[in-house]
Specification:
Helix content: 40-55%
Structural class: alpha+beta
Largest sheet: 8 strands, mixed
Radius of gyration: 22 Å
Shape: globular
Number of strands: 13
Number of domains: 3
């Protein structure tokens, strides 16, 4: 790969998920953001970062212009819904089957169908990332010009599944004196992306039991507050759109609204698949004499199929090499897969800039909620549900929440935060929406905030210029 790399996202990602990403991107869907020529993912100790080649990054932004064609818009959302229906159809078949009685061949065939659908869902999900919507955002800015109005109208007033999940949860809190294991599991299956990267159900149950008890202490009607907030937002959006009375603006705003809602409808396909089909994954892992974590973090899709059908297992040594380090990538549609020390050597030789420290201790990003703040950095990664529980006890009002991306389970921290800074996200991301709701400064898409700063650093957040810098 001779092309410059542009950071895209990072975190604790399983091998199966990354292989699904590559498979999905190589499907070459015609929709904006769904295909690319070059992608590079480097992992050490199960933590990795994904990059696009500069050519792919630029092409992804350029591809967003296709959304000026309403036929493409409608085709994209129709295809997304069909993919979602297909995924949940496969999930239903798995859940209604006695997987312990299936042959290895039957398990393998079903596993392949499931992950082929996951791959397609991931490719479609990428449409809602920041880059494919740049062209539409730019055009909205040209029409509206007022930054605050622009940020207001691109946020949907119809609830997405994050909001629906909050309403469902707070109704549980309001209506029940205590919460059962079954209550929690039903909630998690409805909003399965909460279980992304979570392979210990008991840990999740413990977290939500404690959350229920804490939320029970708050006597405010949270559901009414959420609905009232959405209704007020709807009035603002419709008022601004009426003020401009522009059909093109109406179409582009609708694109943002539908993209945000569609994003969360597609998310269970990749972030909830392990949990929704947990008995299926457990059965496959059992037959391959692995834990589920070893299975999803060591094997690629075809390797699982081969292991089930032909008994070709990865050696313990190869699994350890992959845990230590691996590269999964493609350039001009040609795949690359390297593991162990060889992958470390390749990455450091070809892309030394990926390993350089940010000596300036400054990051820049996209402003999604204006303001300024100064405070102590508190770092948390989105997959670490236990850290949320621990941090909630020591997180002080005015602390700066620094994360790869915010999740709904971080709301207890967000309510106290002086500002939010994320590696990822765009103007309709979760961080953007909640920061505007809480009226706190927020800068997203910094790429490296969680690496540049350390817990306890004192930083200054300038969410007017999009700059965060360490001051001591």
């Amino acid at each position: 790969m001779n092309n410059k790399l542009v950071y895209w996202w990072g975190g604790r990602e399983s091998m199966l998920l990354m292989d699904s990403c590559v498979t999905g991107f190589l499907k070459k869907y015609k929709f904006p953001g769904s295909t690319m020529k070059g992608f590079f993912f480097y992992s050490e100790k199960y933590k990795g970062s994904g990059y696009l080649t500069k050519i792919s990054f630029d092409e992804m932004i350029e591809s967003g212009k296709k959304f000026f064609n309403q036929e493409i818009v409608e085709e994209y959302f129709h295809f997304s819904e069909k993919t979602r229906e297909k995924f949940f159809g496969i999930v239903k078949k798995i859940r209604n089957s006695n997987v312990s009685r299936m042959s290895n061949e039957e398990l393998a065939d079903l596993f392949w169908k499931l992950h082929d659908c996951v791959a397609g869902g991931i490719a479609l999900y990428e449409q809602s990332q920041q880059e494919p919507l740049v062209a539409a955002e730019k055009r909205i800015r040209e029409i509206v010009k007022d930054e605050d109005k622009m940020l207001t109208i691109v946020e949907p007033y119809e609830p997405d599944d994050i909001i629906n999940g909050e309403i469902y949860w707070y109704n549980l809190v309001k209506d029940k004196d205590s919460i059962s294991k079954e209550d929690i599991i039903i909630y998690l299956e409805k909003f399965s992306w909460h279980m992304w990267n979570m392979y210990d159900l008991d840990e999740a149950l413990d977290y939500y039991k404690n959350k229920f008890l804490e939320d029970k202490k708050d006597k405010h009607d949270k559901v009414k507050g959420i609905i009232d907030s959405k209704n007020k937002h709807k009035e603002k959006v419709l008022g601004i759109l009426k003020e401009y009375d522009n059909e093109e603006l109406n179409r582009l705003v609708e694109l943002f609204h539908r993209s945000t809602i569609n994003r969360m409808r597609l998310k269970p396909i990749w972030a909830g698949v392990d949990f929704l089909t947990r008995d299926f994954f457990n059965e496959i892992a059992k037959r391959l004499k692995l834990s589920v974590v070893e299975l999803v973090f060591s094997y690629r899709i075809k390797e699982v199929v081969d292991a089930l059908k032909n008994g070709n297992l990865l050696s313990k040594e190869e699994r350890e090499r992959r845990k230590e380090s691996y590269i999964i990538a493609f350039d001009n549609y040609k795949e690359m897969f390297i593991t162990g020390e060889e992958s470390k050597t390749f990455a450091r030789k070809e892309y030394p800039e990926l390993f350089r420290e940010n000596e300036e201790e400054v990051v820049k990003g996209t402003v999604v909620s204006k303001g300024k703040a100064k405070g102590k950095v508190r770092i948390i990664l989105s997959e670490n549900i236990e850290k949320v529980k621990e941090l909630s006890k020591t997180f002080e009002k005015g602390d700066i929440l620094v994360t790869d991306m915010t999740q709904p389970n971080m709301m207890v921290l967000i309510g106290k935060a002086g500002a939010i800074v994320t590696n990822e996200g765009g103007i309709t991301s979760h961080a953007a929406v909640v920061s505007r709701e809480f009226r706190i400064p927020c800068i997203v898409c910094t790429h490296t905030a969680t690496k540049t700063f350390k817990d306890g650093d004192i930083v200054e957040v300038d969410a007017e210029k999009g700059v965060v810098k360490k001051i001591k």
